[in-house]
Structure formats: structure tokens, C-alpha cells
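> call design_seq(struct)
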């Protein structure tokens, strides 16, 4: 048994150390939190100062545009469907969702809301004409709108999740909501209270909470019952306290990590089998055993990490226009 354990440990260390994160672009004057990887060649990013970027050659070259009329908008989430089609989310003042079908040359408004206090946090899609967007609470309930046949329609108040005082969604990486199937989505909240929300049912998370800067930031889904959630305190980037939880039974029980991520984490992504990757302000961690042990593979800080929807490439997006790629 000891020999088997040592062999597994050696394999984990070797494979983790072989992985590196390479900075492939840092030229745009934007903080990128939106990231969508269509395939191994096609990557889109979005962020502050109204900037959207795209690469169609695996990140070797990039084209950046400032969306006309939105030079001061923070586009904190993006979903791309090919090299021509993408949807971006402007968080507030007013909250808007825009779409391009010509590679970013022009954009049309799909959704606009001027309600005081409106702040959009994340989008998730089944396909180009079906998705969901969530936002901070209004009148004690989180904002939810659904996209059906290219039209965004806000949910009735009775169908929106109730959020407690000091509880909200973080717009840190566009990954605090994931679709489970065509009728269900799962979301996570943070702040003074931090919960897992499934069809408006709230399950308290075993994460750090109690302050506006604490709680869950990102959730990744392996199957209908298996989720990994990361967060912590974004004001304490090097603290691992309460920054991770994992469930195999849809939140009924939680499995602790023997070696959690090495700091606050804003995004987590499922890579396949028992492999996951997570990033935050102080670096990137990977796990090859469903979160029992994490290993830091990079000191480079990022806001978001995403795996190709149709492929295996993994990319990162962060502050100061920084875009990274996982090299194996």
C-alpha cells in the first residue's frame, strides 16, 4: 500500500510540475474577467474600458476592439459560439447585453435595464439562443433573466432566488452560474452569506463568509450531482481559509480538501476525469484527484480560466490585459 501511495504521489507531482502557464498577450489596456474558449483555436475575452479581444490561431495573435459607444463599460462576461458570434455583458449604468455576428466589427443591443441598483454578474448558455443571466438582488431577490429564441425575458419576482441582507453574486469571472440541464441551473452567492442555489433552494456553503469580500466566487460542474466551488476573501489573496468545497451529492454533504488551493480563488474549471484547475490573484492551482490535493503551478494571477468547449486547450484572463495559456 505504501508503494502504491508513493507511486500515485510521484505521478501527481510529475504531471503537475509539467504544466506551466505562459503569458501570451498583455497589450490591451483592460482588466479581463470575461473569457470564452470556443475551440483550441478560437478564444474571446472581454473587460473594462469597453474592450473585447479575439484570437483565431490558438492565442498566437490577437485583435482588440473597443465597442463603439461603450468606452467606459466593463464587459465582465462573454460567451462566444464561433469566430463571428459572441455575446457580451455590460454590468451596470445601465446593464446591457450585446451581440455580434460579424466577429466584433459591430454590436447590437439584446437586453437593457435602467433599474436603479441593477448590476449583472454572469451569463451561462446551452447554445446561442438559450441562456441565463443573473444579477445582484433587487427588493431582496437575485435578478434572473432567461434567453429564449434570441429574446431575453426577466423572470417574475416569485421565480427569483431570495437573497439575505449582505448576500449577492460576485462578478469576478462569469462562472458563478452553470447550467445543469435544459430546465435547471446552479448558482453560488457570496458576501455576508454564501449559498448554493439550485432551483431557488438555498444550501449554506462551508466557505468563509461574514464580510462583503468573502464567500463563493465560482462553481464548476462535473455532472448533475458533482460540483466544485472556490472563493475565500478577495481582500486576502494569499489566504486559503474557507476557499474551497466539493460535493458529489448536489450539496447534501461536502468533502474537504487535504491540500486546498493556495489562496483566494475567483474561478474554477473542470478539465475531465478527476482533473480541475483554479485561478486567483496570486496564481494557478491544479488537482488530479477531485480536489483532495491541489498543487500550485504558477505565480501568475488571473481572474478567469476556461477550457475549450470543443477541444482541450485551457486559457486564462486577468488584469492589465494579461492572457495566459496552459502549456502541457
Amino acid at each position: 500500500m505504501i508503494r502504491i501511495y508513493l507511486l500515485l504521489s510521484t505521478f501527481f507531482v510529475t504531471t503537475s510540475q509539467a504544466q506551466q502557464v505562459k503569458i501570451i498577450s498583455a497589450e490591451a489596456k483592460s482588466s479581463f474577467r470575461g473569457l470564452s474558449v470556443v475551440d483550441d483555436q478560437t478564444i474571446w475575452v472581454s473587460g473594462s474600458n469597453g474592450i473585447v479581444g479575439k484570437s483565431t490561431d490558438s492565442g498566437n495573435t490577437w485583435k482588440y476592439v473597443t465597442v463603439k459607444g461603450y468606452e467606459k463599460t466593463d464587459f465582465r462576461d462573454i460567451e462566444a459560439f464561433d469566430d463571428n458570434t459572441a455575446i457580451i455583458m455590460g454590468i451596470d449604468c445601465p446593464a446591457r447585453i450585446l451581440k455580434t455576428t460579424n466577429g466584433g466589427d459591430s454590436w447590437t443591443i439584446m437586453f437593457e435595464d435602467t433599474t436603479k441598483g441593477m448590476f449583472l454578474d454572469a451569463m451561462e448558455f446551452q447554445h446561442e439562443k438559450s441562456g441565463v443571466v443573473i444579477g445582484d438582488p433587487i427588493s431582496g431577490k437575485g435578478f434572473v433573466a432567461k434567453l429564449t429564441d434570441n429574446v431575453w425575458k426577466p423572470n417574475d419576482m416569485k421565480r427569483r432566488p431570495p437573497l439575505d441582507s449582505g448576500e449577492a453574486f460576485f462578478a469576478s469571472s462569469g462562472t458563478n452560474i452553470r447550467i445543469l440541464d435544459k430546465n435547471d441551473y446552479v448558482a453560488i452567492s457570496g458576501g455576508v452569506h454564501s449559498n448554493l442555489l439550485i432551483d431557488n433552494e438555498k444550501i449554506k456553503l462551508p466557505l468563509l463568509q461574514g464580510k462583503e469580500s468573502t464567500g463563493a466566487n465560482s462553481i464548476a460542474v462535473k455532472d448533475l450531482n458533482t460540483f466544485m466551488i472556490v472563493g475565500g476573501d478577495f481582500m486576502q489573496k494569499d489566504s486559503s481559509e474557507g476557499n474551497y468545497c466539493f460535493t458529489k451529492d448536489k450539496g447534501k454533504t461536502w468533502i474537504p480538501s487535504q491540500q486546498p488551493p493556495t489562496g483566494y480563488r475567483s474561478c474554477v474549471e473542470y478539465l475531465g476525469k478527476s482533473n480541475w484547475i483554479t485561478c486567483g490573484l496570486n496564481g494557478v492551482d491544479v488537482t488530479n484527484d477531485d480536489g483532495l490535493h491541489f498543487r500550485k503551478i504558477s505565480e501568475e494571477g488571473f481572474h478567469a480560466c476556461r477550457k475549450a468547449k470543443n477541444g482541450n486547450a485551457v486559457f486564462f484572463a486577468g488584469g492589465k490585459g494579461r492572457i495566459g495559456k496552459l502549456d502541457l
